[in-house]
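Quick one - inputs below.
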Amino acid sequence: MKNNILIIEDEKSISRFLQLELSHEGYVTDCAYDGVTGLEKVLEDRADVIILDLMLPGLSGEEVCRRAREDGVTTPIIMLTAKDDVSDKVAGLDVGANDYMTKPFAIEELLARIRVAIKNAPPKKEDANVLKAGKLRLDKDKFIVTYDGEEVPLAKKEFDLLEYMMENKNIVLSREKLVENIWGYDYEGETNVTDVYIRYLRTKIDNKYGTNFIATVRGVGYRFDCKE
Ligand code: CA
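Output:
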């Protein structure tokens, strides 16, 4: 998955330069040119790193940063400051910025700091409700499964089965156990209903993307394999 970088910078020439350089490095960029719009985008919580100018119209970078942290946004913030002023930098770090750079800066240094920020970033809030295996992502809240960013359309029972298997990855799950958990104890049908749904999942995921997530354990049931 490509990392998203949010650029909040009112100087169009710097913003444009950052967009070009970051896209060239393979990042997806989003921009805001004032503090108010910037904060709105920050609170959407889609960025992996935020580059935040200190002096902004509407709302200062410091204020954007402070409100973001108050709201529980944990995204790394790299502050840009035009002034080579120690007190500004310290203030930026005090309100929750992770790093800062003084303008003019060398793009190589900013890129290096972005890589560090991504590497050290705490897990996002949503991660508790997102199951991952390689490029496969299952979002419990949004009821969406994607593979490498592409949506995998699943029916409700297929989704439930995949969710249960991903939550119990690398564990052999008997057909009976799967039926109990997905269809319920009072399910009257045959346990081979699991075989049918496993086949659907394989068609939509393993066969389509050339993966081997769903293993058959002969005579017992199935196992969701994930080496991570
Ligand atoms: Ca500015």
